[in-house]
Amino acid sequence: MNSAKSTVPFKGTPEQEAELLKVIEEKKNDKGSLMPILQKAQEIYGYLPIEVQAIISDNTGIPLEKIYGVVTFYAQFSLYPKGEYTISVCLGTACYVKGSGDIYNKLQEKLGIGGGECTPDGKFSLDACRCIGACGLAPVLTVNEDVYGRLTVDDVDKIIEKYA
Question: For the whole prediction, is pTM greater than 0.70?
Fold first, then answer.
């Protein structure tokens, strides 16, 4: 895998930064302010790259390594952008025994990215998830809100083409 994670450039705007600085100013003196600031920052940017963490650190006095530790500890936060189309493959038991692991591997190969990564063009991101409650359709994947079931590895190309 090429590490697509590091090839997607940060594209923050001055408006986003102004909005973040306003949030920081409002919350920085509150006890336990880091989580709400991080949540709002992720809402603003869609993810929490090091550039955004540095803005938070510089304007709150909270050490960057502490912010990074919180961001990487909680699953709700992402260090990497999400694509226009987020593909999520269920790796729960019912899907896995019916071949979702092979589908996930094929998607990584086809998109040239690993799990949790985004294609350099920002079009697709790929995640694995646990049971989505569609076990009768196993194996299942979603593309944003669209659900695809009873899949085989051979279905991957036509699903990607639909969104490309």
Answer: yes
